[in-house]
Amino acid sequence: MRQWLIAAAAVLAAQAAEAQQRPAVVELFTSQGCSSCPPADALLGELVQRRDVIGLAYHVDYWDGIGWKDRYALPDSTARQAGYKRRLALRSLYTPQMVIDGRVDVVGSDRAQVLRLLGPRRPVVTPRVAKDGGTVVVELPQAAARQPADIVAIAYLRQSETAIARGENAGRHLREFNLVRGWRVLGQWSGEARILAMPINELPSDADAVAVLVQESDQGAILGAASMDLPR
User: Fold this and answer.
1) CB 72 within 8 Å of CB 5
2) Which of 45, 73, 138, 162 allows an S-S link to 59, with CB 3.0 to 4.6 Å?
């Protein structure tokens, strides 16, 4: 009986510890036209295999006029990177750039630095994301909030391969992961319990997963995150 109680206590302690942690959010700003980006794309591909990481690749559009037009580039991705430039007081936009938890940026191919910045983190709020018929439902419990936050939904494609014909990566076959196909703010959160709904058919047709970030307003620190696959 004593051994059973010890084992049960260990399981409960592990479950409690897991509940107190949340995945790290790694946002990569990249481009198929950037010769320095493939190593960062590959690193993101490794990171998204981890249960404690939500990785997202935003393909920016300012490389498109330099030999190769990235078929996944979005103006909104460039706008999100510009938001981090302002928030983190950076001197310029660059690729490959990884932003960890909305708090710090690092060169996206710097494996040692990226891994150093990952680790257990406590959520301020733990969103729940589920499918209900043709709708994605986001539920946020009541929790203490330091300041207002945005609830951001990000639709993404888990994997794609592209043969590059021109530009800096001409002749390369790129394998890329968690490519952002669109994102928008669903609403705000200030500590109250909330339930929001988003029709699946309003998401980009080539997306097969969605992440929900609870992020301090004006692209500040990420307070909580969750993701789920989309039915297609």
Assistant:
1) no
2) 73
Domains of the chain: total: 1
pTM above 0.85, yes or no: yes
Q: Are 137 and 196 in contact (CB under 8 A)?
A: yes
Distance CA 108, CA 40 (A): 5
Q: Measure the CA–CA gap between 167 and 73, rounded to whole angstroms.
A: 15
Strand order in the sheet with 149-163: 104-107, 97-100, 24-30, 53-59, 173-189, 149-163, 209-216, 222-229
Structural domain span for residue 127: 23-229
Q: Give the other-Cβ count within 10 Å of 28's Cβ.
A: 28
pLDDT at 182 over 60: yes
Q: How far apart are CA 108 and CA 36, in angstroms?
A: 9
pLDDT in tens, 107-140: 999 999 999 999 777 788 999 999 999 999 999 9
Handedness of CA 83, 178, 108, 46 (dihedral sign): positive
Q: How many CB atoms lie within 10 A of CB 106?
A: 17
Inter-residue long-range contacts of 48-52, CB under 8 Å, 24+ positions, other chains counted: 48/158, 48/177, 48/178, 51/23, 52/21, 52/23, 52/24, 52/118, 52/120
